[in-house]
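Researcher: Final request for today, and then I'll write up notes for the group meeting. The sequence and the SMILES for zinc ion follow.
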Amino acid sequence: MAATYPILRMRRLRKTEAVRQLVRETALSPQDFIYPMFVTHGKGVRREISAMPGCYHLSPDEAVREAQEAQSLGIPAVLLFGIPAQKDGVGSEAYAENGIVQQAVRAIKGALPEMVVVTDVCLCEYTDHGHCGVIVDGHVENDRSVELIAKAAVSHAKAGADIVAPSDMMDGRVGAIRKALDAGGQSNVPIMSYAAKYASAFFGPFREAAGSTPQFGDRRGYQMDPANAREALREIELDISEGADIIMVKPALAYLDIIARARQRFDLPIAAYNVSGEYSMLKAAARNGWLDERRSVMETLTSIKRAGADIIITYHAKDAARWLRE
Ligand SMILES: [Zn+2]
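Model: Predicted protein-zinc ion complex:
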């Protein structure tokens, strides 16, 4: 039988920082992080996003500087979101050869060939109605949207993207992207699928950042209901069967149970997206003196890794990498 108090004293292993380090189960590293960035047209543009202090709209040249800084801190990857020059009904700039993401990919890969450049693949930043697909008879039409999303993924890969990450939650898009990439000679480009993406209030600040608030309705017709966990496992399973190489749970903090369940069930690398609202909450509380920013950020990121994520996509990446080096 296992020993109990007073023979067993749990506090013995908490005695000093050195002992605590020795028995620590979860260790964060800058290598765990993907740093998301918002790229916009122009030159020398670096415009702070008001709801996300420390995050910016960056022109391609500034995005290169930002990626350089991330790389110097040991962060291996960036994730790009595009702010197009013009929006339309079918999100044309998402798959334009000289679209803003395509330009930024070329600029970053040209300057920093070692940096892993991941691109968000969706239509919502590029459509004038703000939905993740095309609208037919007042609703988001799945199969036509999937065609355009696959086209965007191929154009990102052609520009030099290392990984494409579809975030739209249409049915069948992972399979369609895999097929399109392979047909386009891009069979070595992996897909990181936003497999379990919830219709979350925590995306709020991002929509300001990306200008992608739906102009009518909401995204509950394609993103998942926050109440469902088993359905998330089905979504993940489907994406794996369609050829996803990395699966993602988004958001992270309110869905740690989903990350943990996915970890138990699947052996693929799991990414978790520590989303804009999670970031802004801590930033706002820290600015008001209500929370210690460094401790609360590190505790949050540690919880995501402890839940089972291999990869953490986070706006805190640069700060956290700096703190991990101290
Ligand atoms: Zn979208």
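Model: The longest strand covers residues 33-40. The chain has one domain: 28-215+227-325.
Researcher: Thanks, that's everything.
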